[in-house]
Amino acid sequence: MKFTAAFTALAAFAVTKVSAGASIVREYDVLGATDQAALHTCLDNYRTANWDGIDCGGRGWFKGSSAYQNPMNCFDACAGLLAQAIDRGASDVQCNDYEGFAECWMGFH
Signal sequence span per UniProt (predicted)? Predict the structure, then answer.
């Protein structure tokens, strides 16, 4: 019962972090099995860290932007979508978010 409540709370948290302008632009699950728990831990720890090019959970993580004002906004917009992709077994995924003409991207491969 505790697991169900924890999962429901986590799912609600993930949904609240999705921006209207954010979307998954690439998702593959053909590069081998992933350690989903490790990838979730990596994602949870990367909101404020500079993690472009870091290996974590067996995958290389990346983020970048073009004229995007706040990298934490990018994380907040994409984290829920990345968490859902991790749950689906994605081994290579990218999320993009847009603020007008500004764009950010983040993910792992």
Answer: 1-20
Alpha-carbon gap, residue 91 to 35, rounded angstroms: 9
Each domain of the chain, given as residue ranges in start order, spans 10-108
What's the whole-model pTM score?
0.76
Pick 1 or 83 by higher pLDDT: 83
Locate the DSSP E strands across 1-109: 23-28, 55-56, 59-66, 92-99, 102-108
Cβ-Cβ contacts under 8 Å for 106 (sequence gap 6 or more)? 61, 62, 63, 64, 74, 75, 78, 82, 94, 95
Q: Which of 34-48, 58-72, 79-93 has maximum average pLDDT?
A: 79-93
pLDDT digits (tens, 9 = 90+) for 2-22: 444 443 334 434 444 445 688
Nearest to 77 by CA among 95, 51, 53: 95
